[in-house]
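Example record

One chain of 521 residues, shown exactly as stored in the release files.
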Amino acid sequence: MKQIISSTALAAFLLLVASVNAQVNDPKQVAKRQGTNRANNHIEEGVDKGFDKIEEGIGSLFGKKKKKKSTSSESNNTSANSTGSSANSVQGKDAEQLFAQHGIYPPEGATDVPLPVTLKWQAMNSSDFKAKGYELYLEEGETNPMKMIGGPGKGEFTCKNLLPNTTYSWKYVGQSSSGQYMPGGGGTFTTGDGTTAPATINVSWSKFDFVPGDEVIFTDGPDIMEENGEFPSRWDTDSGQTEIADVNGENVILFIDGNPRIMPYLKNAKEDYLPDVFTIEFDLYRAAGSNRFFCQLYDTKNQRANDNKEITIGYNYISCGDFEAKHPDLDYTWQDKSRWMHISIAFTKGKLKMYMDDVRLINIPRYEANPTGFTLNAYFANHGEGLGYFVKNVRIAKGGVKYYDRVMQDGKIICNGIRFDSNKATLKPESMGPINKICQLMQKQPDLKFSVEGHTDSDGDDNKNQSLSEQRAKVVMQQLVAMGISVDRLSSKGFGESQPLDNNTTPEGKANNRRVEFVRK
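Predicted C-alpha cells for this chain:
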C-alpha cells in the first residue's frame, strides 16, 4: 500500500518553500520583500531543516542526499561513468519517444538535455491515490537546496531559466482533491551547452502524414455571402433539412432534422467524378451526446449505390465496414464533450486512409469498391438537447505525384494543402502534413534547396495580398528551419495575386490560386 502524506505533515515545510518558490518565480518581489542575502540564507537553512524533519517523520519524501567519502574504486567508477556519459546523451533524440520509453522525461541520468527543459511524468491516477495537481521541486548541483518551482495541474512543466552544462535533481509530489500528498518520482539530468536545439512541432501533428491532392475539384467554406437560414447553394440533398448558420461570426452548414443528407451540386453529379487518386477534408462540429455522422463515397441522390462501405464518424472513432479504430488520446469521456474535429480521407488506387484530427485511424490496403462521389449524412442531427452537427471547409482534391518526382520533373512543388487562418500568416495544424513531407524530402536530399514562394487569390486589396503572401512564405520557411533544415538552404518571397494558376471566379479556382510553392534553386 502506498503511503499517503496528509497536508498537516507538510504544512511547515510548504510554508518554508513558499518563500523559496517566490524567489524562483519572481526574484524582484523577493528582493523587495526580504531586502538582504541574510534573509535568504535563513530560508535556505530552514529548508534544509524542513527536509530533515520530513525525512524523520514521514520516511524520506525527497530522499535528501547524504554525502559520504568515496573509496578509490568508487572514484574510478565515477570517472569511467563520466567518460562514457555520451551513452546517456539525449541530443537529437525525440523527447516524446523517450518519454514513452521511460515514462519520464528527461530519463534518469540524461545528458545534453536541450534548453528550455520540459519535465514530464506519468499521471498519478491509481486506486490508492489520484492527483488533481502537483508540486514540483528542483535542486541545482549538490550544494543548493531543493526549491519548489511550480504547481502544474498536469504531468509536465517547462523550466525556462536553467543554466547550460549544469546537473539538476528534480522531484514531483502529487496532491489529491482532499489535500493529501503523495511522493512521486523524479531524477537527475544535465543540461546541454545552451545551443538552441531545432524546435520540434507538436508530436501529434508530426504524425499527421496526410497530404491533400494538388488540384481542387470541389470546395465550400461556406462562402461569407451565403445567406443565413438558406440551403447551402453549392450542395444538393435527397433527405432532411440543412441550412446555413452563423457560428461565432463564421458561416457553417447546419444539419437540422432527423436524417439530413447532402452532396456536392455538380453538373456531372451522375458521373464518376472522383479520380483514382483523391483526398477529401472537412471540419466537423459534434455537440455533446450527439449520434453518429456518416460519409458515403458515392452520391446517394444521383448515383447508383455500389459496394462502397459507409464511413461512420463517432466522438472518438472512425469505422468503415470491418475496420474500426479509436483516437488514442480521446477516451469515453469525450462522448459528453462538444468539439470541432478535422476529418481527412485519402484514396490512392484502391488504398483508403482516414484520419481524425492528427491521427490516422483507418488504413485499408485494398478497398474493394470504386468511389464515385461524396455524401455527408447526419443521423438524428438534432437530438433534442441542442444542435448536433456543423460542417465547414469541405474540400475534394485530385491527387498527384510524389514530391520528389514533382521537383525533379517540374523544378517545383505546388502545395495548396498548406493552410492559414483567414487574412493571417498563422499556420493551421493540418498544414503540417505537407510541411513534414517537404522536411523529410530535404533531409533525404541534402543538396536540395528551395525558394518558398507564397501566392494568394484576387480577393481583397492588391498590396495587402502581396504583403500577406510574403509573410506566409516566410512563416513556412521559419517552420522548416525550426524543424532542423539549415537556413542557408531556404529563402522566401511572395507574389500576391500576380501569378494565378486558375480562375478567380469560382471557389475551386481561388483555392488552387491560394498556394505555397517550393521552387528548386
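Notes: The two ends are 65 Å apart (CA to CA).
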